[in-house]
Design a protein that fits this description.
six-stranded antiparallel β-sheet; binds 5'-O-[(L-methionyl)-sulphamoyl]adenosine; single chain; about 650 residues; alpha+beta; 23 helices
Length: about 650
Amino acid sequence: MSCHKKAYITTPIYYVNDIAHIGHAYTTIIADTLARYSRMSGLDTFFLTGTDEHGQKIEESAKSRGKTPQAYADEISAAFKDLWDDFDISYDKFIRTTDADHMKGVQKAFSVMHDNGDIYKDIYKGHYCISCETFFPASQLVDDEFCPECGKSTTIVEEESYFFKLSKYQDRLLEWYENNPECILPKSKRNEVIRFVEGGLTDLSITRTSFDWGVKLPENFNDPKHVMYVWLDALMNYLTALGYGTDDAKMDQWPARVHLIGKDILRFHAIYWPAFLMSLDLPLPKHIAAHGWWTRDGEKMSKSKGNVVNPREVADAYGLDNFRYFMLREVPFGGDGDFSQKALIDRINSDLGNDLGNLLNRLIGMSGKYFEGKVDSTNVAKYYQAELDEVHASLDKLEPLLFDMQIHRYLEELWRPLSVANRSIDKYQPWTLMKEGKEEEAMALNGLIAAILGKVSVMLYPVMPDICTKISDALGFKIDNASWNNIINERNLLEAFTIEKIPPLFPRVEEPLLEQAEPIDQKAEPKAEAKTKKEEKKEEGVALIGIDQFFQTSLKVGTVVKAEEVPKSKKLLLLQVDVGEEEPRQVVAGIKEWYSADDMLNTQVCVVANLKPAKLMGLKSEGMLLAAKDGDGLCMIRPEKPKTAGTPIG
Ligand code: MSP
């Protein structure tokens, strides 16, 4: 990233006609992640968010609630700001389009565009969708009346209007898309925009006279009945926030490194905005990055269905950082995503609890048990250079993925070092090293695990700032530009330290924590049919249980790290199974008729991990293995692909 020393990162400014939902939180969290990474890696970062408060839609919403538009906007804008503050969103400025400086900047832009010959007065005749605040030519309407974007009825408008010469910029826009393959991300979206522009651009009406709630034209136009089109007003926020038109102090942050938006507002950002900037003689943004749409349990969210996901509720129930991780990991950027509690719980228990949290617990356990809590990296390279190389190869791929908006891949790649760590414990077995008196090697293994956790916590920090701060505190260092340079850029290991014992970071989530409608498929099932199914089951003698009962059983993937026969027993094998804990579990399994000890060694199994310990032939057994037996004999149930020891099954 060395060639771009600055990083100006923006979210859309949110309409104040509704409170924030998961879609808004998603854009803001991505932007926050980029901003945090940029700062940590030493870029001069400016992160902007805010609210979009003018326009016919807001005016009407306020009226329907018996409020003035300003009072209404004040209230909702404050609610957005409070949410982002509670979410610890690291914005540098929160802009409101009702800010006096912003309005002055918009007027200035109008004058400059006019002086550059790009604005003329005419009559606008056509259709307007108030909900989308968009003009549509009749040819694009559905059934001659309805908005092609949202399906609502459009209004016929015939009024005097100022126009922006959008058509004049068609060729320059096409040239820009052509010469900058990454100007619109993901790249597939760029093709959509190119096709649209090639279809021909008509000039854009940029003022309205039929309502009042907007920025007036500059006084010298002497045309008080006009207010600016809300999208001209709104897009200009990206410049006025830097002082355009009032105090240019921060204008050197321009052009934006990335405008983050949702796919529904791509046209405004990828066509109108660069054309306005061309008219203002300003450079164009580096990336316009459009993400997909969130649904809930497979359905579009809407107030009327009552299924809108409230980000505050989710964060309160599941933890803010867990929610952040889920959103960014679950969906490839640009694709649509589905919010379900099940998917969120899976991510928490598996990726976070098992792969990350458990690794820290293991490190705390090993260091405490063998070394009085001390961790020393001095000999890591001597014993584990291959593992270090593998870890660094993954870490090196990360930064480009982030600014290419491949955030899900960033996180996927960041989990590889964790699996190197988990695998190394299984493979080198610190308890065996200690038994064999190889203390130096065991300490080096400890150092390797700590180094990996340290590096991962730095690179994960932009996504999970709070959790990663806890991890780095336990590991005795602070996450900042200096430590990023030291352990990521320069690939150093951690200084010797004494580990701090901290409580588990990701307590297992056993059941959905938010009160909510049952899963859609159950709800949709006609009652009569459900009853018949139930009766059928009863006939078969299988009692039906709820999902919560199922979750009471802790099933885990285990790796058999030692296997031997139980003397004098025809049926039993004595196994040591690593289920991701500090030490392997001893399991006595009645499988010897079908499997020898050698067959079982280094294979993976499914373990019931929360059974009360039992004794078999005088040997303690701390778990049960899943197997299936029919007339043909018995076979073990195993994961289809190798999985980290301790991965929950469910
Ligand atoms: N005010 C305009 C933006 C002006 S930017 C100069 C606006 N506001 S909005 O509040 O309606 O939407 C803000 C963002 O939220 C958009 O990027 C939109 O894509 C996003 N989302 C709204 N609903 C969404 C989902 N269900 N899922 C994901 N994002 C969604 O548009």
